Amino acid sequence: MRRVFLGGIVAAACLLMACKECKSDCDASCIVSSRTDNEITIDGKGNDWASAKPVLEGLLAPWNGRVKDKTNIYICHDEENLYFLYTVEDETPICDNEPSEMSVAYSDRVEFFISKDAGMREYVCAEIDPTGKALGYTAKYHRQFDYDWDFDALTSAATATDVGYVVEASLPLAWLREQGYLKADNTMLIGLYRGDAIEPRNDQSIRWLTWIEPEVVDFHLPSSLGQIRLIN
Predict the structure, then answer these.
(1) CA distance 128 to 109
(2) Rounded to whole angstroms, how far apart are CA atoms 32 and 76?
(3) Which domains does the chain have, with CATH numbers?
(4) Coil/strand/helix, residue 104
(5) Does residue 228 register a pLDDT over 80?
(6) How far apart are the first and last CA of the chain?
(7) Do 93 and 108 meet the contact criterion of CB atoms below 8 Å apart?
(8) Which residues contact 185 (CB under 8 A, 6 or more apart)?
(9) How far apart are CA 14 and CA 34, in angstroms?
(10) DSSP designation for 90
(11) How far is CA 187 from the centre of its chain?
């Protein structure tokens, strides 16, 4: 996978549209990615993003008081790529300095999973820490992880801010289609999450936050997935 490590503040997002023609589908478990005409480079500078509303304002901590944090998530696409931007408020971001990808498991991070089917029989995961270091792996339900798989299609960048950190990422639409994640109707099953590390080198102290509340304390469940729809 490709990574960029940068500091600074990123202005966010892409122009988002309401999915009026599919209102019954685009409810609380459906988000919309609209097309942007801006040329977006995942470099952490944010000069090529235009102001807009996030697709999600706050992630839920269902197992820690059911409170929402102040994470904003922005998603858009152009002809070639799907883009993500997370802005996270965190007064004590923790990053594990060990160079391997697996060290992300001990750090603050944002996450997204994309699945080929509603049963999560095959899905991929990206976990990205405040420095831009990314842990990518493929998985099968339930919790059959392949950490040797390399998420070459993923590009990520991170920046520090006065109140936390920002993460940007992109995936090629051609790759998403070829791999069977992006369907012919331009929809995709996706989960959006965050891990808030409380203590260094203690992966048991992480506060978990999610877009959709799953059935039990686990993100790796079909009930944690929603849908994203790409529109022009």
Answers:
(1) 5
(2) 8
(3) 2-231 (2.60.40.1190)
(4) helix
(5) yes
(6) 28
(7) yes
(8) none
(9) 8
(10) -
(11) 16
Identify the bridge partners of residue 34 per DSSP, sorted by sequence position.
76, 231
| 3-class state of residue 73 by DSSP | strand
Residue with tokens 């923790």: 94
List, as one string, the DSSP characters of 7-49. -S-----------GGGTTTSSTTEEEEEE--S----SS--TT-
What is d(CA 124, CA 23) in angstroms, rounded to the nearest whole number?
Answer: 28
DSSP calls for 185-197:
TSEEEEEEEEEE-
- pTM equals 0.90
Question: Where in the chain does DSSP place strands (E)?
Answer: 2-5, 30-35, 56-57, 60-61, 67-68, 72-77, 81-89, 109-115, 123-128, 134-140, 144-146, 155-160, 164-172, 187-196, 207-210, 226-231
Reported as a single tens digit per residue, the pLDDT across 26-70 is 578 999 999 998 889 897 766 676 765 799 999 999 999 999 999
